[in-house]
Each structure stands twice: as structure tokens, then as C-alpha cells.
Amino acid sequence: MERRTAPLTFNLAEEQKQQLCASLGNVELTLLYKASVHGYQASAFHQRCDHQGPTLLVAYNRSGYVFGGYTSVGYAQSGKYISDSEAFLFSFQGKIPVFSKVNSGNHARYDDAGMPNFGQQLNFCRNGEVVYNEGGKSYSFNAKRLYGNDTKVTECEVYKVRDAKCEWKEKEKPWRNIQWTSIYELKEIIREYKPLKTSARRARILMIGPVGAGKSSFFNSINSIFTGHVTNKAISGYAGTSVTTQFRTYTVKDGRGGRTLPFVLCDTMGLEEESGAGLDIEDISSILQGHVPDRYKFNSTALFQPVKQKASRPASLQEKIHCVVYVIDASKISLMSDELEEKLAVIRREINSLGIPQMVLMTKVDEACPLVAKDLQSLYLSSYIKSKVQEVNSRLGVPVSCVLPVKNYSQELELELNCDILLLSALQQMLRLADDYLDDVDADDYDVHVI
């Protein structure tokens, strides 16, 4: 008599499954391989997983970590390095997965006859363990954060990933509307913008955010759009501490040698978790009230002191900040510490007391969601990005309508239409909020001299 095989059950929690599916688009997962059932031998893995197309590997360890990797190129034991720009590693940090995309120009996998590996940097389920090669460069991740440095695997599952429906992009309704062809209209709206009060010649927008979130990169991106090619006028990057050490006020010209556009982007030192490190809250108050001059160098051991001549008179409306933008890395929202969240809450209360409108610029959406990395126009079809917007709303208290996801220029050498449209749409919203502030102030209370 033939023995009946019990149906495979998976360890992946339904909520975790939904989060991973949301990050990949409208897909379905079918369990192909389960190490505790089929064995940890490479032959068992390849027998069930070769030539299956895109797959998602999920591993579990003794410390309770749920982590793994995705590849869009099927296993075939070809003995070759595999290029796969859609590949990524992931780890659940609480209920939300955090992703690490394959680095540009690096191999995503080595397709051999062994157990699955990602870039020969992370080998899964080899003799029931995860093996990490510290010299690998295909993925940028922290082993402790990814799986707690606990290499003993208690289970390993591989799922086949397939589209739930071929025409999902056309049929599914986006959760926010955007015109992906409106680049010229957006540029013209920004060119023709005039602040509501004549005493404010340009809208002044203050960028605040953690180190490495993309404040300086946002200015560079906007400057690139109007210059016509990718620029790096503002120093940007990530060095563990803030690259920006000065208060900078940046204007943008409409093309090379063109007129100055009617807004100023103000860049600050990055926020840091530790007390006494990064931008001080008292310094932010001085910036908001228009007392801090361009190129003032921040000092973490001493607060800003306005010069006596300026301190004796109120700042003009043109010197004050008209809109505040929090710049938050979409891929790190769930990792935000309690200390940083509390610091942002204190800043927000101070800004509220001055009646200045606030919004959130959610950067690096392509790093946060593999679906968006594949196609930026999928941004407002991604339920994963929507969940990130809602998370920002609950953690920072900023309305959902004031949380705008964007992608700054970072690795690109040429401009991209979809990227431009998201960035300009965000800038347009900043100008609208600045007008809300200007509409609410009494211009007679300010010095009408504009600088």
C-alpha cells in the first residue's frame, strides 16, 4: 500500500507572510522545501527547488529570528555567479521586515550544487547552520541585526514566488493618486510660485532628520532636476555621524545661470540619539526664529548665541522658517530608537507652539521595498510602503497626508522621470504648507525689509 504524505505546513506566521508578499507585489507563496521534512542535504534542496523561478528562503533560529533572502533567478546548479538586481536579504524586526538589497555591480548568488547562498557571503542551512563570510561585498548588513549572531538554524523553508494575477498593476487601485507624466507642469508650478506675503520673497523650508536620512541629498536631487543633470553641491553621505556640520541655506537656479527659484532649503546637522550629540533642540529653536546665519558651524558643547545687533530686533518674516520637513529613512523607521523618537517629539512640540506646518519626507523607498526598487511607479500600489507611511503617522504624529515617500538621487548618473515627479510633488507640498503659514501670520508684525 502506498503511504500517504501529509501536506506541508509552514512556520511563517500569516502576518509575516502578508508583509513579505506586500513588499514583492501581488504575489502568492507556495512551499517547496522544508528542511525538517526533506532533510538538510543539498541534494534534497535542489531536487525540490531547482528550475522553480523566483524563490523566497525563510530561516528560523534558536533566538527567535526570522530571516532569509529572495532571488528572482531560479536555482539550476550552473556553477556560475548570478546577477540579480532584484535579490535581497531580509530580517523581521518585530512585525516589520527590514531589507538589504544586493549592492550594485555585485553578484547576487553563486549557483552551485550546495545549499543556497547569497553572494557567497551568507550560506543558509549548511549542516543546519548559517555561515557568514565577513569578506563578502554583495550585501551590506549587520549579522547581529539580521539573525542575532545565532548561527544554529531550527528550520529552513523555501517558497516559490509567483504573480497572483498578471495584470495586477492595471487592475489594482493605488492608495494615493499621482500623475506620472506631469513633470513639465510641476516644474512650471514651482517656477511661478510666489509666497503669499510680499515681505517673504522666498519660502524657507527647514530639513530636520537623523544622520544619513537624506537631507542634503534631497537638496542635491532638487538642484539636479532644475540643472538638468545629477549634481552634488551639498556634501552628503553617511559616516556614522553627521556629514553636515553647518547651518546651510541653499537656493536653486532654474538652469545653469538661470534665475533663482522662489524657495530656500535649509540644511542642518543630523539628529543623534545620544544626549549632547548631533543637532541640539535649542539650536533648532534659534533657526526657526530666524536668528542663525548661513554657514554657522554647530557646536555640540555650546548653544548658538545671536549677535547683539540682531538679538535686539525681531527677525524678519523672510528670515524665519515657514515649513519644517522631517527627513526619515523608510528602511529604518521600525529601527528608530525610543531616544530618537522622544527627541523628535520634543522638537515637534516646539514647532507646534510656533504654528509652523510640518511634514515628513520618507526617503529611500527603493531600499525599503523590493517591489518599488523594481518599478518606482509601483510606489502607491505597495501596501508595504503604505504600512510604513502609517507607521510614521503613529510614531511621529504627522498626518498621513503629510507623509510623502520619495527617492533621492544617490547612485544614478542620469535623471529619471519617475524620481523627478516624486521629488517635485514633495516640494510642491512644502510650498503649499509654507503658504498656509504665511497666510496665518500678520505681516505688519514683521520688518518688511527682505534679504
Q: How much beta, percentage-wise?
A: 15-25%
- From the N-terminal CA to the C-terminal CA, the straight-line distance is 92 Å
**Counted beta strands:** 18
Multimeric state: single chain
Q: What is the count of helical runs?
A: 14
| Spatial arrangement of strands, main beta sheet | 15-13-14-12-16-17-18
Helix content estimate: 25-40%
Low-pLDDT stretches are 166-170, 447-451
- Give the helix/strand class: alpha+beta
Shape: elongated
Average pLDDT number: 86
User: Could you tell me the radius of gyration in angstroms?
Assistant: 25 Å
Question: What characterizes the major β-sheet?
Answer: 7 strands, mixed
Structure characterization notes:
- The protein has 451 residues and is of the alpha+beta class.
- Helices cover 29% and strands 22% of the residues.
- The protein has 14 helices and 18 strands.
- It has helices spanning 14-24, 35-38, 42-49, 143-147, 168-171, 183-191, 215-227, 281-288, 308-311, 338-353, 365-368, 370-374, 383-396, 417-440; strands spanning 27-34, 55-61, 66-71, 80-82, 88-93, 96-101, 109-111, 117-118, 122-126, 129-132, 153-163, 203-208, 246-253, 260-267, 296-297, 323-329, 358-363, 403-405.
- The chain has a seven-stranded mixed beta sheet, with helices on both faces. A six-stranded antiparallel beta sheet has the order 1-11-2-3-5-6, with helices on both faces. Strands 8-9-10 form a three-stranded antiparallel beta sheet, with no helix packed on it.
- Strand 9 (122-126) and strand 10 (129-132) form a beta hairpin.
- Helix 7 packs across helix 14.
- The longest helix is centred in the C-terminal third of the chain and has 24 residues, at 417-440.
- The protein starts with 13 loop residues before the first helix and ends in an 11-residue tail after the last helix.
